[in-house]
Amino acid sequence: MSWLTQTLSSSIGKKLIMALTGLFLCTFLVVHVIGNLQLFKSDEGLAFNTYTVFMSTNPVIRTISYGLYAFILLHAFDGFYLVYKNRQARGKVGYATVNNQSTWASRNMGLLGTILLVYIVVHMGDFWYEYKFGYIPFKKYTIDLAQGNVIRTEDMPGSYTLSGKIAETMDEASLTKTVIVKDLYVQAEASFSNPLLVLFYVLGMVALSFHLVHGFRSGVQTLGANHPKYNSLFNFLGVWVFAILIPAAFAAMPIYFYFRYLMQ
Question: Which of 40, 45, 115, 235 has the greatest number of CB atoms lying within 10 Å of its CB?
Fold first, then answer.
């Protein structure tokens, strides 16, 4: 296995690790943004709260999540190492001129990556840590099974406890379903009423956009997917999907809650 260790520890090997972990994280972003779009549903948080329960209790998802945390750290440390080696190779003087083919994003991937790492820490502290270890209240939803909509909600007392994160009961006589679930939606409402935090999240998504506009294409090229037949597709995905659509969707969430808060 020494050849594998030597390959992965080489400059080419580290670029390969960066590409593989980066593209895996791109896949995660797609799944994460689709799930978080539940925040926009007009059901007082039911869809988002039940989605959160699924993501935090499903054994397959939980296993993938642990891999995700490891990949984030590996991607970050590997990126910092490559930035350090690149600066070492240039020497203390640095470039006399900027290569016309390079972009601001490609020259500042280390800075963008650092901003995103800080963003991830803050985001996980606000939501993941609070959901796992902090205090998240429970909410009771009553659902009309015939219409499929929420007809009544009730905030449970602060002393209310549940052995799990969700409890569901059916009332066949009234054709209703009751769901009691941890209300992470209310945490989002509270967090995004803070304009400074909203600004931080939006700036984080700007950094993500610049990071992905270079990172996605670079990762694809590192894996050898560089062919005139497919380059236009990769460019479309890198720019319009990962650098524009996904960051814009994430940024829209705190902005949506903040303007809702202002209109109350």
Answer: 45
Rounded (10°) CA dihedral 250, 114, 25, 69:
-110
Residue pLDDT, tens place only, 214-256: 889 888 888 887 777 788 998 999 999 999 999 999 999 999 9
Give ∠ CA 196-199-203 in degrees, rounded to 5: 140
pLDDT higher than threshold 80 for residue 160: yes
Residue 252 CA to residue 168 CA, distance in Å, equals: 31
pLDDT tens-digit map of 37-56: 999 999 999 999 999 999 98
For residue 155, list its beta bridge partners.
139
Q: What is the dihedral of CA 150, 154, 156, 161, to 10 degrees?
A: -20
Cα–Cα distance, 176 to 170 (Å, whole number): 6
**First vs last C-alpha separation in the chain:** 62
Annotate 120-133 with b (16+ C-beta within 10 A) or e (fewer). eeebeebbbeebee
CB within 8 Å of 223: residues ≥ 6 apart: 16, 19, 20, 23
Q: Radius of gyration (Cα) for the chain, nearest Å?
A: 22
| DSSP class of 157 | P
d(CA 7, CA 1): 10
Q: How many CA atoms lie within 13 A of 259 on its CB side?
A: 6
| CA atoms lying within 13 Å on the CB side of residue 258 | 15
CB-based contact 81:14 (threshold 8 Å): yes
What is the residue-averaged pLDDT of the chain? 87
Distance (Å, whole) CA 240 – CA 137:
38
Closest to 74 measured CA to CA, from 131, 113, 17: 17
